[in-house]
TrEMBL record:
It comes from Streptomyces haneummycinicus. This is Amidase domain-containing protein. Pfam families: Amidase (PF01425). The lineage of its organism: Bacteria, Bacillati, Actinomycetota, Actinomycetes, Kitasatosporales. Signal peptide: none annotated. Residues 2-242 form the Amidase domain.
Amino acid sequence: MIAGHDPLDSTSIDAPVPPVVEAARNGSVAGLRVGVVKQFRGEGYQAGVIQRFDEAVEMMKGLGAEIVELDCPSFDLALSAYYLIAPSECSSNLARFDGLRYGLRTGDDGTHSAEEVTSLTREAGFGDEVKRRIMLGTYALSSGYYDAYYGSAQKVRTLITQDFERAFGQVDVIVSPTTPTTAFAIGERADDPMAMYLADLCTIPTNLAGNAAMSLPCGLAPEDNLPVGLQIIAPAMKDDRLYTVGAAVEAAFVEKWGHPLIEEAPTL
């Protein structure tokens, strides 16, 4: 585990570290209010993922947790907002990589101009997905589109944060599937970026809001025998809640299966 303030990192928070080790050693969900967001299911969610998630929720209920259903309507807009905000910030940040000041440099053989070196370096150094995000972000930040795209996405981000604030006024933690489906094969969605992005439906809201979150395995989907993830979300700087719930759930899985990851040893 990495925790605590780093004086050499301007983005590092100078605040006491929550007692996560103690929380993990004394994990229990008894008396905790656990939220289940109704937007984290439905179309696009694999049946086996929902089955294992519901079983995990029932397990927590059996351990003494109070299960609370939550309505977070802005979560349905999170994917669209994220894929405007993240590419825009990607475009802005990666503008530093010009092939001249540091890092990779291609075409520096004395026959190319500085502009050509930059172009050749970026062509060689950025993968297809990075280039796609740079182009999307550059467009969203361009004159005449900034407010309509990036500005609007930031407003949605605020709504998502407000949904979380209201939710954490009712519950101690929120749980959801980590992804709507189990893992897809390498390259299977390479030609369909939107299908690939949809795998992030459950994790994007908390990424936009800046909350604490963790994922742990909660069994295998019956359709394909692949692992299902359980996401636990807590307010920012409340990481100890994640370890409290995570440790309790993992211990319950060990007791049920004899192993925290899978129900039975795979056949090799």
